[in-house]
C-alpha cells in the first residue's frame, strides 16, 4: 500500500498542515482505489475538511499508479468547484486503465460530471445523482454590469462543456435538448430513475452512506434529508466570513 501526503488549510495558524495520507490501495481484484468523499475544491487552500479533494490530490494519486492499472473510483460528494471538477474529470478520463465508478451515496453537481469519467458507472437504487446549472459565488469582490455579463457568458460555456460530457454517457435517443432541460431544472435522480437517461448500471441498494457538504444549501431542490446533514464546518465557515467581512468594513471606514 502506497501513501501520499495530504494537507489542509489550518484557519488558526493560517498555514497548510499535514492531516494524513491519501492511500493508494490494491483491492482484492488488483485495482487501485480512489475515494472522493468530500467537496471538490480548487487547491489545498480551499479545503475546509480533511475529506475535500483538489485536482493536485488526484494528480499526485495518479502519478503513483501504473498508467494501465485498473481503477475503482468511489464517490459520495455534494459537489464543489466547477473548474476543479472538470479538471479532475479530464485527469481521470486520460488514465489508460479501466475505470469503474461507484456512486456510494450521492454524486451531485460537479461530482456527477466526474462520475462520467468512468468506463462503467455503478449506482445503487437508493443513491442519488444531481445535475444543475453551474453557478458563481462572490465574497471577496464586487462586479459591475459588464463584468457580470462576462461571468454569465463564462457560465454558459461551462454548461455547454458539462452537457457535452453528459451526452457521452446518455442512452441512445436522448437529445441535447432533453439533457439541457434537466440541467436547467436542477434534477435529482435516484439510482433507478437515472437509468432512464444515462448508461449506468444499477445494483441493489446497500446500506446508505452519509454525505455532508457545504454546497447542499446552495441548490434549489436539495432533498430535506440532505439538508439535515450540514456539518459544523458550515457554521465555522460562516463565522469566518462574517468576521472577515466585519474587518473589511472597518478598514473601509
UniProtKB/TrEMBL annotation:
Gene Ontology annotations for the cellular component aspect, listed alphabetically: endopeptidase Clp complex
One Pfam family, short name: CLP_protease
Alphabetical list of Gene3D superfamilies matching this protein: 2-enoyl-CoA Hydratase, Chain A, domain 1
A GO MF label: ATP-dependent peptidase activity
InterPro entries associated with the record: ClpP, ClpP/crotonase-like_dom_sf, ClpP/TepA
Keywords: Cytoplasm, Hydrolase, Protease, Serine protease
PANTHER family the record matches: ATP-DEPENDENT CLP PROTEASE PROTEOLYTIC SUBUNIT (PTHR10381:SF70)
Family note: Belongs to the peptidase S14 family.
Name listed for the protein in its UniProt record: ATP-dependent Clp protease proteolytic subunit
Amino acid at each position: 500500500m502506497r501513501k501520499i501526503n495530504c494537507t489542509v488549510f489550518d484557519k488558526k495558524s493560517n498555514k497548510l498542515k499535514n492531516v494524513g495520507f491519501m492511500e493508494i490501495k490494491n483491492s482484492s481484484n488488483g485495482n487501485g482505489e480512489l475515494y472522493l468523499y468530500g467537496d471538490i475544491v480548487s487547491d489545498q487552500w480551499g479545503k475546509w475538511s480533511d475529506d475535500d479533494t483538489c485536482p493536485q490530490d488526484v494528480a499526485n494519486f495518479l502519478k503513483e499508479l501504473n498508467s494501465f492499472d485498473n481503477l475503482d473510483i468511489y464517490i459520495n460528494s455534494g459537489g464543489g468547484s466547477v473548474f476543479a471538477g472538470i479538471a479532475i474529470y479530464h485527469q481521470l478520463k486520460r488514465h489508460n486503465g479501466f475505470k469503474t465508478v461507484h456512486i456510494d451515496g450521492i454524486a451531485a453537481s460537479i461530482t456527477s460530471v466526474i462520475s462520467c469519467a468512468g468506463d462503467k458507472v455503478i449506482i445503487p437504487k437508493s443513491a442519488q445523482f444531481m445535475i444543475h446549472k453551474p453557478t458563481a459565488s462572490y465574497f471577496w469582490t464586487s462586479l459591475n454590469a459588464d463584468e457580470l455579463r462576462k461571468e454569465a457568458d463564462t457560465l454558459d460555456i461551462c454548461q455547454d462543456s458539462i452537457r457535452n460530457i453528459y451526452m457521452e454517457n446518455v442512452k441512445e435517443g436522448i437529445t441535447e435538448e432533453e439533457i439541457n432541460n434537466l440541467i436547467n431544472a436542477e434534477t435529482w435522480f435516484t439510482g433507478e430513475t437515472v437509468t432512464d437517461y444515462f448508461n449506468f448500471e444499477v445494483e441493489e441498494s446497500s446500506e446508505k452512506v452519509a454525505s455532508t457538504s457545504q454546497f447542499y444549501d446552495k441548490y434549489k431542490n436539495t432533498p430535506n434529508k440532505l439538508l439535515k446533514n450540514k456539518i459544523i464546518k458550515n457554521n465555522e465557515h460562516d463565522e469566518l466570513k462574517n468576521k472577515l467581512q466585519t474587518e473589511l468594513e472597518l478598514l473601509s471606514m
